């Protein structure tokens, strides 16, 4: 009764490559090559990423403090009220 799901269409000119799971190494040289590579990449990008975030944080914290300051009432405006 019809074709199965994997056989619905015939795909031509598609080449697939695979490696046997027994020939793969899941985590080769992770500590000897991987961690130094992570540190190298981190150091090369930190000066490009951190300054915009630091500036954004400073602007945000200044804006929050200014909003809280402006939200308060001025006590000098109410000195002569009795």
UniProtKB/TrEMBL annotation:
Q: Is Mitochondrion found in the keyword set?
A: yes
Domain of life from the UniProt record: Eukaryota
Q: Where in the cell is it found?
A: Mitochondrion inner membrane
According to its UniProt record, which protein family does this protein belong to? Belongs to the UQCRQ/QCR8 family.
One Pfam short name: UcrQ
Which named protein is this?
A: Cytochrome b-c1 complex subunit 8
Its keywords, alphabetically, are: Electron transport, Membrane, Mitochondrion, Mitochondrion inner membrane, Respiratory chain, Transmembrane, Transmembrane helix, Transport
Q: Is Transport one of the keywords?
A: yes
For this protein, the record's PANTHER family field holds:
CYTOCHROME B-C1 COMPLEX SUBUNIT 8 (PTHR12119:SF2), UBIQUINOL-CYTOCHROME C REDUCTASE COMPLEX UBIQUINONE-BINDING PROTEIN QP-C (PTHR12119)
Briefly state the protein's biological role: Component of the ubiquinol-cytochrome c oxidoreductase, a multisubunit transmembrane complex that is part of the mitochondrial electron transport chain which drives oxidative phosphorylation. The complex plays an important role in the uptake of multiple carbon sources present in different host niches.
Report how it sits in the membrane. Answer: Single-pass membrane protein
InterPro entries per record: Cyt_bc1_su8, Cyt_bc1_su8_sf
Which proteins does it associate with, and in what oligomeric form? Component of the ubiquinol-cytochrome c oxidoreductase (cytochrome b-c1 complex, complex III, CIII), a multisubunit enzyme composed of 11 subunits. The complex is composed of 3 respiratory subunits cytochrome b, cytochrome c1 and Rieske protein UQCRFS1, 2 core protein subunits UQCRC1/QCR1 and UQCRC2/QCR2, and 6 low-molecular weight protein subunits UQCRH/QCR6, UQCRB/QCR7, UQCRQ/QCR8, UQCR10/QCR9, UQCR11/QCR10 and subunit 9, the cleavage product of Rieske protein UQCRFS1.
